User: What shape does this take?
Amino acid sequence: MSTEAFKGRPLGGTLSRDRSAPAASAGRWPPVAVGALSLGLVVAGIALANTTMGLQRAFVGSTFWTDSLASFALAGFGTALIWKGLKVDDPAASILGYAGGALLWMGFFEWTWRYFSVWLGIDPLMIDGQPVLPGSFLLIQASVCIFLPLTILSVANKDSRCRMMQWIRRVFRLQAPDTRGNPNKGDPARVAATETIFVIWFVYLLNISLYDPRLLGASQNVYLASLAVIGVWAVYLVSRHLRIPSPGLSLRYAIPTAYLLSILIDGSTLSGLFPAFWIQPLQYPIAASSMAFVFAGCVCGLLQAGKAASTA
Assistant: This one.
């Protein structure tokens, strides 16, 4: 979704003018390695988020109060991670921002969709007498008219570092108002957290549209064609993503890329290619828990890549 093309240029000018440039970049990790680590971190993070929600509903989701306390604890932890991220440098700031944004979504947004759909009495979408979409999904779908104006306001922020917003402005040749002198230049942790929330929100809306028989789920052909378009989009994002050498920027670019890939992964599980173990941690404990090791390994790798880049 955020698709600003990376333009690789030697730091400090051209190579002909800076003979130290090759030596200065010798310590940097290859962009492909950095991209693979950041993409693996976000993919593992998506799996862990689903696993956490599954465990929460299995063990504390039987009553409103215990489920609410668990959700607000996740949101509080996410806030603490983002706050911590404001005090550290990249790529640690982006890692904390991503994790914090995901926890905020799990704690506040998921809780809102789940309980307000019940309190408002939103019935599931019925087609031919069969429930197709639960009431919580319809509530999310109704939020599209909240999502769109917030996105427009984000695009209008010239100082936004969100890659998606920069790409939209470039493609549609939008001239945002001049905000020179604005001290709020955007911290990586806050940018990553905000991007995470908006990307998850967008992917929810897109996923629901894919399974809504009134929209992209109107027929098998429309559904498959939509998946094909998403697949081409995802391949394009991955190809651009693997060219970014900066660990922090790579992670922030990996957020929309990985969440878009998750749509294709979900579609594969529905076709029976492999089980969705991340939402069934009690049935597949080893596979589900392995994502924690992948996540931790990618975090360590990105931090090491960041140190190599800073000392190069």
Notes: The radius of gyration is 21 Å. Confidence is low (pLDDT under 50) at residues 1-24, 179-184. The chain has one domain: 28-175+189-311. The chain has eleven helices and two strands.
